[in-house]
Structures are given as C-alpha cells and as structure tokens.
Design brief:
The structure holds two protein chains of two kinds. Chain A is an alpha+beta fold. Chain A has helices spanning 54-62, 104-114, 119-132, 148-160, 178-195, 206-212, 230-235, 240-245; strands at residues 14-25, 28-39, 43-47, 69-74, 77-78, 89-92, 166-170, 198-203, 215-220, 223-228, 250-258, 261-264, 267-270, 280-286, 291-294, 301-310, 315-320, 325-330, 339-344, 350-353. A six-stranded mixed sheet of chain A has the order 6-7-8-3-9-10, with helices on both faces. A five-stranded antiparallel sheet of chain A has the order 13-12-11-14-20. Chain A has a five-stranded antiparallel sheet with strand order 15-19-16-17-18, with no helix packed on it. In chain A, helix 2 packs across helix 3 (119-132), helix 2 packs parallel to helix 4 and helix 3 packs across helix 4. Chain A is elongated, with a radius of gyration of 24 Å. By secondary structure, chain B is mostly helical. Chain B has a single domain, classed as MetI-like (MetI-like fold, Orthogonal Bundle), CATH 1.10.3720.10. Chain B is globular and about 80 Å long. Classes of the chains: A alpha+beta, B mainly alpha. The interface between A and B is medium-sized, with 23 and 18 residues. The structure holds adenosine-5'-triphosphate (ATP) and magnesium ion. Adenosine-5'-triphosphate binds at residues 25, 28, 30, 48, 50-56, 204 of chain A.
Chain lengths: 358, 274
C-alpha cells in the first residue's frame, strides 16, 4: 500500500523522504514499502500498535538499521549509507540509553563536547537545557540515582541540546505519570515550535498523537494505513483499523444500497458517502459520542441498556439492539434495563471499504 | 548477627588452613631460636633490606608489571574481538581460549622449554632457514613470555565479560550524538570496561609477582624472583624464619596492590572481581 502526505509535493520542503522502504529481519518483514515524506518543521507522529514497525522506521532514519530495499533521502540527498554520527539527526531512545559512567551534566554535554564547543558555551547550553526539562540542580547526579521519568527527561535534554535538524523521539514520555506527561507534551510541542526542529515522534497513545502532531501516520504490521492531520484521521478514518485504533468506535457490517444510502442493523440509513458499488459490503463506523439516546418511539433503531459505567466526563452505555451491541458515550444516563431508541445522523456514519484481512 | 550453623565447617576450614598458617608465618618471621629459647626480633626483616634481596623484590615487581602490561595490550583487543558481534562462532572461540587453562600449568611451561631450547623447535626451524641459532631459553624475555602465556586468559576473560555486557544502545547513543568509531571507544566503551581491566590487571599481576615455577623453568635459575627466594629458604636453606619474613613482605606487596586496585574500582564504581 502506498500513501503520501497531503501536500508533500514541494521537494525542497521535504527534509526526509522514505521511498519504498522495506526492512526484513531474517525473514520477518518489519516494514513493507513505506513511502513517507516529512516536511521541514513539522511534528510528525508514527502511531500504531506494538510491533507495527515504528521503532524500525526511526532506526532507519537515525542510521542504526539499513533498509533492505528502498531509499532514504535527507534534503533530497540519498543517505542510505551515511553512518549515524554524520547525520544531522538526534534520537531520544525508547530505553533512554544514558551513559551510566557519566553524571547528568556530562550526559547532556556529550554531543557538544564532541563538536568541540568551548567550555563556557557548553556549560551555558547544558544548564539552559536542564532548566527547560525541569532538572536544574541535578547536574552532578549519577544516572542510576534518577527516577525513570527524570532519566527520560535527561535523554530528551541530551538530544535536544544539539539542536539537530530532525529529532527522533521513540515513546519519550512512556515512563511519566499522567500529569507530568501532559506537562511534557506541552513543553515538547513548545520547544519544537520555538526551536524550529522537525520532530518525528513515536507513540502508541492515540491521544498523545492527536494532541501534539501536525501529521499523524497510522501504521499496522509494517504498512502505513493512513497519513493525515489529526482531525482528518479522527473524522475520516480510511478503514476500520484506523477508526478503531483512533478512539473508540462501533464497527458494524453493512451494505451500500446506493449512493447516500446504507443498510446496517437491519435498517436503512441516510449517509454522506458515495462512490461505492451497488450492494457492496462495507464497514460502517460510528463513534460512541455520535449516537443519541432518545425515547423508544422516536427511532426505528431500538435497544435495551445492558450496562452503564461512569467515565468521569461522560457515561459509557452498552446498548443491545437485535443485531449489535452499541457503545455509546453521553453526558446523560439511561438506567440499565431501559428500552431506548438510538438516533444516528447521516454525517455520523462513516462508510469504509472492507480491507481484505489476512 | 546470628551465625548459621551451616557456616561452621567453613569457619573451621578458614581457621585451620588460612588463619592459623598465616599466624604461624607471622610468628616465624618475628622470632629467632637461640640457646635459651625463642626470642622476638626484627632481624629477618632487616636482612631483607640488604641490596641483594631488594634487587630480587624489584625484579619480581618489574617482570610482573611488564607481563601485566603486555597482557593488557594483547588481551584488550582480543577481548574486543571475542565480544564483537562481527564474530559468529563466539562460544567456540571463548572455549578454545579457555581449554589450555584446563591443562596443567607445569606441562604448558615445559612445552615452552622444548620450543625455546638450543635444539628446540624454533632454533631447528631457524637453522633450517640457514640462520644462526638464538639464545631463547633462560633469558628474562623467556620468563616474561611464560608469564604472559600462562596468565593472558586471566586478562582476557574479565575484560570480555564486561565488554559483552555493555548495552549496545549506549554505543548507538554515542554515535547518534556524533561520535565516530574511535570516539565511541574512548568515551564509552573503554570507560565502561575499566572494571574488567582492573580485575584483569589484578588477576595477572598477583600470580606473576609470586610465581617461582616459571622463573625456574624458563629463567633457568638465573632470574631469582621473590617466589624462588621463599622456596629456597624453606626447602634448600631451611631458614624458616627468614623465609617467613620474605613471605610477609610479599603479602604486603599483594595487599598494597589490591588496595590500589580497589581504590580505583570504587572511583569507577566497578563490578568487583569477576
Ligand atoms: N533486531 C531485530 N531482529 C528481528 N526482528 C526485529 C528486530 N527489531 C524488530 N524486529 C521485529 O520487527 C517488528 C517491528 O518492530 P518495532 O520495534 O519496529 O516495533 P514497534 O512498532 O516499535 O513496537 P513497540 O511499540 O512495541 O515499540 C516486530 O515484529 C519485531 O519483532
Ligand atoms: Mg518501539
């Protein structure tokens, strides 16, 4: 499957291009024909379940893994064979990879010392960076005396202090608690904007991906499923996998009767999609928050409330209709056992081509 | 702290075979037998201060240091090759490396004698090439060779085991931050391997400074080391008191070098002897 970013045509703007990249680890295909354009100064996120090839993609960009086939371009120049230390790219590794024999300051200063900057500049840059990641005063601490979250921030500082053109981040906030994580998300996003660095960010947390990115790349089994802005991805998921992975969804089998009319759950619904063959089987995706619970006689689609869970901002209800168990998010609650009607507006119905599942 | 009864046999063993003999040696080194019984004296230690004995001590330390340095120079790259992932049959190589250690140390040293002899393999080969024979055996170099040959595995193995445990991602992180191959070695691999280097140095230096077999077989008795001196005092001369005093001096040398090493180890928070 080949996909390109929307508007990735202006060649000069693409700082990194992956052209038909495949990666094979002795028989296991980790990446299959990846085509991806990363524009200068964009915040691009690779999102997907465990083992889908996110880290492998980053490692190819960083130079730690050679693609089995395909080309990697940096500012339009092929860099397949360029060793990592010559690439103007820095990485925040999934497992931090901090140097245990150096203290916090020395870890962060590592790259600057190799560039042979003078002592004063190094000192200033490192201190600024440590302040930025909330670790001022930790300069002399040994790495193994830090908590997981602190180590992660040292790893971010160590990469960012070099002001690379591209920063690769492999689940950099994985070890942080929710509050610190949200703070760091905002901080990272600010830094990215302020320093004008292109971020390639890996996460399997869809909320994080949606809230931080300019572009989200959804991956599965070594292939790209969809590339788009967070809003596109959320509102117009290309297939049932993306819809399911990005937020919760009701996914039900349906048949496209004709343009703008789809049948599912034994009923006909008006919709906004067209261009399918007549009687083509499709996946119908409806977000839980897009279904309204109404009085039983107000809708043809009826069901019985089976379970209600309070989720903080809203209630989650499981409602059984004849053919399907619906998941519904609403701020108002119907009690368990109540018979209700379900109302789905045409633009809440997303029709997706069935993908051949292996 | 409550003692576990299981440790008693071990304590008895320690007392009988380590503590008691040491105490005896200390006792002998500080006493002398006169007509009217035992007398406390420092004379044996004073005697050791004579130049002839000090020269032996100096030579022992010199040859041991020399061998240790050679072992380090040969052993470090060897350990790196073994630990490197470019190497397919790693286990086999390590095995081959360890096999000679299972053979008796004396046998291996005798084998070198037959190689280095006037009529030995090397000289036979040289004369076959039309070259004059070399004086190989019974030289200081032969003694150093014997030490290096016998103790090299003790240098390679601890370094190898430390190198193998270095997280590959640290090397990648260094490369990522702009370090080329040599810089990665200088700033990451070598500092992280220091605990292995230190225990390697200790494990080569200790047996080298105390050996008496290698110097006797390959040095032909011309290069008396401190170990030979002790052996002589006990077995040939029969002066147990002086022999004990020399032993105590040697203990001191060993303790001092262990002290120096462990001080370095602490500074580098090493993982101890392997
Ligand atoms: N060095 C390797 N040797 C063999 N297979 C590998 C290697 N590295 C990765 N793989 C395989 O390639 C696939 C993709 O792995 P990758 O690490 O890129 O996943 P990921 O998307 O980063 O997952 P996670 O979210 O768990 O980190 C997996 O099936 C993995 O088992
Ligand atoms: Mg990963």
């Amino acid at each position: 499957m080949t996909t390109t970013n929307t508007g990735g045509s202006a060649v000069q703007q693409n700082i990194i291009e992956l052209v038909d990249i495949c990666k094979d680890y002795n028989g296991t295909e980790a990446l299959k024909n990846i085509n991806l354009y990363i524009r200068k100064n964009e915040f691009l996120t690779l999102l997907g379940p465990s083992g889908c090839g996110k880290t492998t993609t980053l490692r190819i960009i960083g130079g730690f893994e050679e693609p089995t086939s395909g080309d990697l371009l940096f500012n339009g120049v092929k860099i397949n064979d360029l060793p990592p230390y010559k690439r103007r790219v820095n990485t925040v590794f999934q497992k931090y990879a901090l140097f245990p024999h150096l203290n916090v300051f020395e870890n962060v200063a590592f790259g600057l010392k190799i560039k042979k900057l003078d002592k004063k500049t190094i000192e200033k840059k490192v201190r600024n960076m440590l302040t930025l990641v909330n670790l001022a005063g930790f300069e002399e601490r040994e790495i193994d005396s830090l908590s997981g979250g602190q180590q992660q921030r040292v790893a971010i500082a160590r990469a960012l202090v070099n002001e690379p053109e591209v920063l690769l981040l492999d689940e950099p906030l994985g070890a942080l608690d929710l509050k610190l994580r949200q703070e760091m998300q905002i901080e990272l996003k600010n830094m990215q904007k302020r320093l004008g660095i292109t971020f390639v960010y890996v996460t399997h947390d869809q909320e994080e991906a949606l809230s931080m990115s300019d572009t989200v790349v959804v991956m599965k089994d070594g292939t790209i499923q969809q590339i788009g802005t967070p809003i596109d991805i959320y509102n117009e998921p290309k297939n049932a996998f993306v819809a399911d992975f990005i937020g919760e969804s009701n996914i039900i089998d349906g048949v496209m009767l004709r343009d703008y009319l789809v049948q599912f759950a034994g009923l006909d619904f008006n919709c906004v999609d067209r261009g399918f063959a007549e009687m083509e089987p499709v996946d119908v995706v409806v977000r839980p928050e897009d279904i309204q619970v109404v009085a039983e006689d107000e809708s043809k689609l009826k069901g019985e409330v089976k379970a209600v869970t309070f989720k903080g901002v809203h209630y989650e209800m499981l409602i059984d209709s004849t053919a399907f168990r619906w998941k519904i998010h609403s701020t108002e609650m119907a009690p368990v056992g109540a018979k209700v009607g379900l109302k789905i507006l045409p633009d809440a119905i997303h029709i997706m081509k069935k993908v051949a599942t292996k | 702290m409550k003692k576990n009864w299981l440790s008693y046999p071990y304590l008895v063993w320690m007392f009988l075979f380590i503590f008691l003999p040491l105490l005896l040696v200390l006792f002998y080194s500080l006493t002398t037998r006169t007509e009217d019984g035992l007398r406390f004296t420092l004379a044996h230690f004073q005697r050791f201060m004579e130049p002839i004995y000090l020269r032996v001590l100096f030579r022992s330390v010199k040859l041991a240091l020399f061998s240790t340095v050679i072992c380090l120079i040969l052993g470090y790259p060897m350990a790196m090759i073994l630990a490197g992932n470019g190497f397919k049959r790693k286990q086999v190589m390590v095995f081959l490396f360890v096999v000679p250690m299972w053979m008796n140390f004396l046998l291996r040293t005798y084998a070198w004698m037959t190689l280095l002899e006037k009529t030995g393999l090397i000289n036979t080969f040289l004369s076959w090439l039309g070259l004059p024979p070399l004086n190989l055996l019974y030289t200081e170099e032969a003694v150093v060779l014997g030490m290096v040959y016998n103790f090299l595995p003790f240098m390679v193995l601890p370094i190898y085991s430390v190198l193998r445990k270095i997280d590959k991602s640290l090397i990648e992180a260094a490369e990522d931050l702009g370090a080329d191959g040599f810089t990665v070695f200088r700033k990451v691999i070598f500092p992280l391997s220091l605990p292995g280097v230190l225990s390697g140095i200790t494990m080569v230096f200790m047996p080298a400074v105390t050996t008496f077999v290698i110097s006797r077989l390959l040095g032909g008795g011309q290069f008396t080391l401190i170990g030979n001196l002790i052996e002589q005092q006990f077995l040939l001369v029969g002066d147990w008191n002086f022999g004990s005093a020399i032993s105590m001096v040697m203990m001191l040398v060993i303790l001092v070098s262990i002290g120096v090493m462990s001080k370095y180890e602490k500074e580098n928070e090493g993982s101890g002897l392997f």
